[in-house]
Design goal:
Blueprint (H helix, E strand, L loop, with lengths): L2 E8 L12 E8 L10 E5 L8 E6 L1 H5 L10 E7 L38
Antiparallel strand pairs: 1-2, 1-4, 2-3, 4-5
Length: 120
């Protein structure tokens, strides 16, 4: 689940026709402890979240599915307004993925230097 805090709204002079009536919000993603996690982003909001609200957001094709017109050209959308959340201090987040293992060297075949005789 991706959570964020709503920082404010974005005013657009012109919008795509599918975005008329859809509010654009500036959101600050945060981690399970509430600490900021990355830069602020803009999300389309059909749920009417307000400044200071905690929301759940999605990206990709799912973002367009959250809006009234499912063919809206958006990449981030609000899908829920969160009443409250908490983090269990005994549960640790999954570890960050480490570097990919080095590829195994390819085995080469040694070619025979002798020639075989054809049977007659």
């Amino acid at each position: 689940m991706q959570l964020a805090k709503v920082l404010g709204t974005v005013v657009a002079e012109t919008k795509h026709e599918a975005l008329v009536g859809v509010k654009l919000l500036v959101i600050q993603p945060h981690d399970h402890t509430g600490a900021p996690d990355g830069p602020p982003i803009v999300a389309a909001d059909a749920l009417q979240a307000g400044t200071g609200d905690t929301i759940q957001w999605v990206t990709g094709r799912e973002a367009a599915l959250a809006l009234p017109s499912t063919y809206t050209p958006v990449d981030c959308a609000v899908v829920a307004i969160v009443d409250e959340f908490w983090s269990d201090p005994n549960v640790q987040p999954p570890p960050e993925p480490g570097p990919a293992p080095a590829p195994k060297p390819k085995r080469t075949r040694k070619r025979s230097t002798t020639t075989r005789r054809k049977k007659k």
